[in-house]
Design brief:
Layout lengths: L4 E6 L8 E6 L2 E7 L20 E3 L5 H4 L14 E4 H18 L7 H9 L1 E4 L4 E4 L2 E7 L7 E7 L2 E5 L16 H5 L6 E5 L10 H17 L3 E5 L5 H12 L5 E3 L3 H7 L10 H9 L1 E3 L2 H9 L3 E5 L7 H10 L6 E4 L8 H8 L12 E4 L8 H14 L5 E5 L3 H13 L3 E3 L6 E3 L1
Parallel strand pairs: 3-4, 4-5, 5-6, 10-11, 11-18, 12-15, 12-16, 13-14, 13-15, 16-17, 18-19
Antiparallel strand pairs: 1-2, 1-20, 2-3, 7-8, 8-9, 9-10
């Protein structure tokens, strides 16, 4: 067998611009191709579309997908494999990014459409073949439609998790580790490490604390702003609120409105479609500045992007709510260091030059990534079922989180690598 190689184009010792070129069986398969979500988008290392046999997209979040149109600026058209739902969401997210960051992007709407036209839709449990490489699609449990990919070349198996979660949420089923055990032995595991140094709170306890905190604000006639990612987190929060607070009207703003409606066409990706549909019927969509100003004069609950307060309607609401003693901003998404949401949590201000906020500020752990305990359990089960022959590549985590998980795995005698961007891993 020829050597199997992984060229790390991005996503190493960082959260952002995930991109890995896998050379297996003489075929070059690109695993995601994302950007870093800074003021100016940062791109992974370049790869020529001419050398790519296929692209596997784990899910449409921009840190995994935002650089893909760059591969369609020439006449070369590599096929992209992802779920039909991810394809729909991908268009929304990249179009929105183009509105906000267009001058900084090396592609335009034409390249986006070319990219979308070259997507092959797959579903969980499906298998596809690229020459002698067999690929199986598995549920990653991260957001609706997110995938893990298991690649098999003549018995040599590679599992790429993308972002994954083995904890059940109100919105979707978790990744099923039993599906993976059935496929062992696995020779190479490329796995995220976002929370490699921190375990998550108990999910049900987090839900109850979250709901209790909201009730405290509402009983004081206050307004609760929940900044949330437009896809995945906004819909999960909606399900949680409906589960516990059916009599409270929830307001939803921004792109979360459209994406929430799109999910109605893909109920097979939801854990409880009836719960989701009922929750959505209880939502009032906010449209335009006039409705937003009117809502600010009342009490209630608002779910709106951006999840890190970097823009969107959430930032508009936050600037007003921040001044109120009886209201709250409850963060429910991962906050990248340096973003307004992170600054609010650590300094009690929306920005360096703003005043201290008067409202209540809390962060609740509703992560869609596996925590340290889940990652250790997932990895060790695979390694043990593979006769301890699995090489583990830790990606998609800042250096502190990834290094902590690396040390724990090494102490267990596991063959683990913490690559840098630009590294080539040869097996």
């Amino acid at each position: 067998m020829n050597n199997v190689k992984v060229l790390c184009l991005g996503g190493c010792r960082e959260v952002g611009k995930s991109a890995f070129l896998l050379d297996i069986g003489g075929r070059k398969i690109l695993l995601d191709y994302g950007i870093s979500l800074n003021e100016v988008p940062h791109f992974p290392l370049h790869v020529s579309p001419k050398v790519i046999d296929a692209i596997l997209l784990s899910h449409p979040h921009l840190d995994h997908s935002g650089a893909l149109p760059l591969l369609f600026t020439s006449r070369v058209r590599p096929p992209i494999c992802t779920t039909a739902l991810s394809t729909i969401i991908l268009r929304y997210l990249i179009m929105d990014m183009m509105k906000l960051s267009g001058p900084f992007l090396p592609y335009e709407e034409h390249e986006l459409h070319e990219m979308l036209n070259n997507i092959i839709s797959v579903d969980y449990g499906d298998s596809l073949k690229i020459s002698d490489v067999n690929i199986k699609i598995l549920n990653a449990g991260h957001v609706p439609g997110s995938c893990m990919f298991l690649l098999n070349f003549k018995g040599f198996k590679v599992l790429y998790t993308g972002d994954m979660n083995s904890i059940e949420t109100r919105l979707i089923h978790s990744a099923n580790i039993d599906d993976i055990m059935f496929e062992c032995p696995i020779d190479l595991l490329i796995i995220e490490s976002t929370y490699g140094n921190r375990s998550h709170d108990d999910r049900k306890l987090a839900e109850k604390t979250f709901v209790s905190s909201i009730l405290d604000v509402l009983e004081n006639n206050g307004l609760v702003l929940i900044p949330a990612f437009a896809y995945g987190r906004a819909q999960e929060i909606l399900c949680i609120l409906y589960k516990y607070l059916k009599d409270i009207i929830i307001h939803m703003d921004g792109m979360a409105r459209s994406l929430s409606l799109e999910l109605l066409n893909f109920k097979s990706f939801l854990k409880d479609p009836n719960l989701y549909e009922s929750a959505l019927k209880n939502v009032r969509f906010v449209r335009g500045l006039k409705e937003r100003k009117k809502l600010l004069s009342k009490g209630g609950v608002i779910i709106s992007p951006a999840g890190m307060l970097k823009g969107g309607p959430a930032l508009f609401y936050a600037r007003s709510i921040a001044k109120r003693h009886n209201s709250a901003i409850f963060l429910v998404s991962y906050q990248i260091p340096g973003t307004p949401g992170d600054y609010l949590l650590n300094h009690g201000r929306l920005s360096l030059d703003s005043e201290k906020v008067n409202c209540d500020v809390k962060w609740f752990d509703f992560s869609s990534h596996g925590g340290r305990d889940e990652l250790l359990h997932f990895i060790t089960k695979i390694v043990n079922a593979s006769g301890s022959l699995t090489k583990v590549l830790l990606v998609h985590g800042d250096e502190k989180a990834s290094s902590s998980l690396e040390l724990s795995l090494k102490n267990l005698g596991i063959d683990v690598v913490l690559p840098k961007n630009g590294d080539i891993i040869i097996l």
